[in-house]
Amino acid sequence: MSDKSWLSEIPQLDRHQLLDIRKTLDGAYRSFSREYGDSIEAFFDPLLSFLIWFEKLLLNSPWWLVIAALAIFAYVASRSWKLTLGVIVAFFLIGFFGMWDNTMRTMSIILVSTMLAITFGVPIGVSMARSNRVQSIVTPILDIMQTMPAFVYLIPVVMLLGIGKIPGVIAVIIYAIPPVIRLTNLGIRLVDKEVLEAATAYGASPMQRLFGVQIPLAMPNIMAGINQTIMMSLAMVVIASMIGVKGLGQPVLKSITNQYFTLGLLNGLAIVALAIIFDRISQSYAKRTLQNFGGHE
Predict the structure, then answer these.
(1) Is the dihedral of CA 39, 41, 47, 50 positive or negative?
(2) What domain count does the chain have?
(3) Is 115 a member of any domain?
(4) pTM > 0.70
């Protein structure tokens, strides 16, 4: 390549070299998938069984019982009659417009994914808050997870596990877990050092400081992270429907491919209703938790 062309065009790999790299990486992943795919599927079998059981529980329970349970949950978390009434009306309208079954399927996936994201995310966030080295390792990984296009998550998961509920849950968790990790880390780091010193002076152990002081004071941030995780899980519902995850996402996908405006709008509004309900409940719970902790100080 002449000096002139080097200055005007960026140096790049030869097409055949690039093809060889892609073939090598693709071949390595396919070999890994063939070798360990069955073992990994077997590992996730208990989770699949739980998902199927939970979905059947929601689908087979009487509609009024499900709405009553959700209303009780909303009131216990928020202590708000307005929000509780909103939950009852929203779910009744969802059923009235023929979207009950898909909403229950979506809810089962979202609730399980969110619980798993919290189970893994909060301890990782705590570890980051307690160690700058852990934070420096995890932060770039979270940056990649948050900026990677959502569709890209589906490729390795589908190659490894095929299509269905488990690949959908894994894709949703990978996409939605960063906020709860980041905000748990931030919340604990923002706890006043003087409060921690006072707890230490009273003889509190590191675990007592963590569970008795740091986590309660960081709860608004942690709940904000959980809130964002739920929102991102719901945002992933339509994309996850592309790999066989049943629920509200599939009618939306169908409406895109067949240009059914009303079908897409109604199911989209059902997803919005779920998002608003979970958002308000989690925010109300976070405020109450902080007020209760402040009252006991």
Answers:
(1) negative
(2) 1
(3) yes
(4) yes
